[in-house]
Amino acid sequence: MSNHQILNPTDHGALRVRADAAPELGDGVMSCLVVPSEFRRLACEYPIFFRFDGESRSFAALALFGFEGGENLFLEDGRWDAASRPFAMAVQPFLVGRPQGGQGAGQVHIDMDHPRVVLAGGEGVRVFDDAGQPSPWLEEVAGMLGALDEGYRASGEFYAALDRHDLLEPFSMDVTLDNGASHRLVGYHLINEEKLRALDAAALAGLHDAGHLEPIFMALASLGNLGKLVRRKNRRADG
Q: How far apart are CA 106 and CA 128, in angstroms?
């Protein structure tokens, strides 16, 4: 269940939010949605894959945190063990809402039923200061919300370009750990490097001019993090 409300100092002036990291705070997930505009920032930490949503008939990108449901190998002693987090994880429990009809400027909403929400008197980061102004932490989160919303709205053109050039291919992988346990990654897609290399100069120039070439290369580069993720899994299994 969720209880979304428009964030405002009148109703939420005493609110605090847990900013640490833990499975019970919503961080216990195997992957999360990421947008092409953040691929460059995330490519040094997480493998980035694509997944087709049969209901919406569209692709989305995911940053991978583990190899089985509910597993986040980046959680370490109440903190997120990475230089950066995907926007979708960093902004919780906030989200972008819009007026009825879906038109107009985005609004900062908060899910009051999210486990990160702490009522007055609890431990957590202030959302508003004593004067009712957004705290520096909230301003930072609002900036990430805006970047996530903008990136999501722009992502349709990116996926249309991938589809136009038939650049996504199905991917599966068997992961065998040092202790003999195995996991299988299925249902994902990645960039087909052969088809990318076969594109002519005009097609590559079009992708570059539209800003699509960089996230394509960042997604490919991110696959080097699979080995790092396996090592995290091995250390966790050994411990």
A: 19
pLDDT in tens, 126-174: 999 999 999 999 999 999 999 999 999 999 999 999 999 999 999 998 8
Residue of 113, 114, 140, 144 whose CA lies nearest to 126: 140
DSSP 162: H
Q: How far apart are CA 70 and CA 53, in angstroms?
A: 20
CA distance 22 to 206: 43
Which amino acid is located at 102 in the chain? G
Structural domain boundaries in the chain: 4-238
C-alpha closest to that of 40 among 221, 231, 223? 221
How far apart, in whole angstroms, are the C-alpha atoms of residue 155 and residue 12? 32
Confidence band for 223, pLDDT divided at 50, 70 and 90: very high
Count of beta carbons in the 10 Å neighbourhood of residue 26: 17
Taking the CA atoms of residue 82, residue 226, residue 27 and residue 187 in that order, the dihedral angle to the nearest 10 degrees is: 150
User: Sorting pLDDT into bands at 50, 70 and 90, what band is 180?
Assistant: confident
Dist CA 53 CA 56 (whole Å)? 6
**C-beta separation of 112 from 7 below 8 A:** no
